[in-house]
Specification:
The protein has 123 residues and is mainly α. The chain has two domains: 1-44, no CATH class; 46-123, AhpD-like. It has seven helices and no strands. Helix 1 (2-8) packs across helix 2, helix 5 (64-76) packs across helix 7 (97-115) and helix 6 packs antiparallel against helix 7. This is 4-carboxymuconolactone decarboxylase. GO terms for molecular function: peroxiredoxin activity. InterPro entries: 4CMD/NDH-1_regulator (IPR052512), AhpD-like (IPR029032), CMD-like (IPR003779), Decarb_PcaC (IPR012788).
Length: 123
């Protein structure tokens, strides 16, 4: 939970926990233990690198809601808007322009929100 909070922010995690019910409890437990406790906490890659990989994969999958959340996480993990742009440009070549086009729109919205002092409301 510590890594999840550090990467995604308290506001996002608090919302996820508050929205957990009997139907989603097992899933929340799964992602907390495995995604955040096993993978994101491994020493083999730093969080910036993990964010680059995650942004690339989410762009490829066209997982816009998760992408917005991870653009915020990438900023929190130290990526700059310029680096996020480069990740999306790189992904465009290998995952396709339509996927990258959508990713640019999502990231642009998050970056504008970030510039306006947004609070992760849409994640």
């Amino acid at each position: 939970m510590r890594v999840r909070r550090e990467v995604l922010g308290d506001a996002h995690v608090d919302r996820a926990v508050a929205n957990t019910d009997d139907f989603t409890a097992d899933f929340q437990d799964l992602i907390t233990r495995y995604a955040w406790g096993e993978i994101w906490a491994r020493p083999g890659l730093d969080r910036r690198t993990r964010s680059v990989i995650t942004l690339s994969i989410l762009t490829t999958l066209r997982a816009e809601e998760e992408l917005a959340m991870h653009v915020r996480a990438a900023l929190r993990n130290g990526l700059t808007p310029d680096e996020i742009r480069e990740v999306l440009l790189q992904t465009a070549i290998y995952a396709g322009v339509p996927a990258a086009n959508t990713a640019f729109k999502v990231a642009q919205g998050v970056l504008r929100e970030s510039d306006d002092g947004g609070d992760d409301r849409s994640a």
